[in-house]
Specification:
Layout (H helix, E strand, L loop, with lengths): L1 H46 L4 H23 L4 H37 L6 E6 L15 E3 L5 H7 L8 E3 L3 H10 L5 E4 L3 H5 L5 H4 E6 L4 H6 L10 E5 L25 E8 L11 E10 L4 E6 L5 E3 L6 E3 H4 L4 H12 L5 E5 L1 H11 L2 E5 L3 E3 L2 E3 L2 E5 L1 H9 L8 H19 L2 H5 L1 H8 L4 E2 L3 H14 L4 E4 L4 E5 L9 E8 L1 H15 L2
Helix pairs in contact: 1-2, 1-3, 2-3, 3-15, 11-12, 12-13
Amino acid sequence: MKIKLENDKIMSKIKKDKRKQEKTMKMAILIVFSIISIIFTVYMLMSRFFPLKYAVILIVAIVLLNFTIYALLLTKKKKWKTILSAILMVISLIIFVLGAFALKDINRAISKVSSSQEVDIYSIIVMKNNPYKMAIEVEQEDIALVDSDKQSIIQELLPNNRDYITNAYSSYPELVEALYEGTEQFILFDEAFREIIYNVYANFDVETRVLVSTNPNIIEELKNAKIRSPLEYYDIIKKDKADKPEKGDYTEYESTKVENAEPFTMLISGIDTYGHINTKSRSDVNIVLAINPQKHEILMVPVVRDAYVTIAGTGFKDKLTHAGVLGVETTKNSVANALGMPIDVYVKVNFTTLVELVDTLGGVTVDNPISFSGAGHHFPAGKIRLNGAEALAFSRERKSLAAGDFDRGMNQTRVIKGIINEVIQPKSITKFSTILEQLSDSFITDLSDQAIRSIVQNQLNTGGSWTVNSTSITAQGQMGLPSYMMPGYSLYFAVLNEDSIIDVREKLLQVINE
């Protein structure tokens, strides 16, 4: 009997220890699950992509879920409770993991967009028949250039070319002219100016070749280029080369750092190329937006590409489109100076951006005031639905429009309005991460991560449509004004009307003043 009692005590102790271990294990599992729930909740709130009312509901649901699982596991042991709690935890963990990955994709895409930078691409250009085939063969050859402070680039591209002399030219057209005339055999060329040179030497990429470049893919990109700048924008009749660029009044306007869903101004700058958005090129599209997220109001003002403005950083006047070859920041500051008001942020896009964005959204609807055709497409008057290629053609056509560039600028604002109306739709909001991920390589902006999140969260919280209006700046066409980047050439310019600028500036400021 005594042995039996001792055995019973031992068995009882073993069972008690086993229950204690099971309880400890359950507590450990619950603590780990609670920690995961807290981490996911904090991560979700920090992402700022949930409307506050839904975020509160989700937090309450996660808390109730934890209490339910606690109750199932820690109350009187029953097999069905253990199974049910296990199922709830597995399903919850799957949702947490999928949600975390979705938020990670969004965060990565936003960081990628706001941290992208423009790059300068320099090449050593020679005529097609130049005997040198490889950069390492070049020794003791003079190099012609425009920017005399780029010696390090020459040394990088031509490592064996020692004891060379540099010959400086005042502009890239003059530099290329010297190459064509045989005065120079090697030129250091800023690829951002290639589109400008096409207007003087239409077969530049055929008659010359890239010997070496800071972008090793430049030759392949030139072969696959989809666009060549239309020659009709320029009258390339040479004037007296003694003509000097005209100095312009310039004021540096201080931008506001946008951090939240507050009123701000933005420049949408579209470069006239396909492919990499980091490439510097002429700014073919320049649209100023006053955006007030609180009032859900936007006013858009297109500034024609041929506007005669002071190019920021140079002090000289030229076409606004030429500012793009110096970078989007230069374009933004040039427009701000021309309008006499600060522009806070920019978004830089190109042809690829527009096509991909519109197609990702499933098309856009625009209100077309007049029927016209262009680039193989016909656009009837009225509300029309456009895919990506059609939206690009609609935005670029000017020949069929009575006011040319001015009407084209207004059509570009109509496409942007269509995009805005599409983006704020619930179906687009739900696939925001997909849209952002697909387009993260297609545009860059200096709008901060925090500002992007705040604006999106504000829209999710408040919902509703936006009032999107547009107006334009009048200008007078004029030939032969001095050009900073193409001195000695007779170009067409659009001289902006000062009274019109004042009127537009007042309207823009009215939108952002709460």
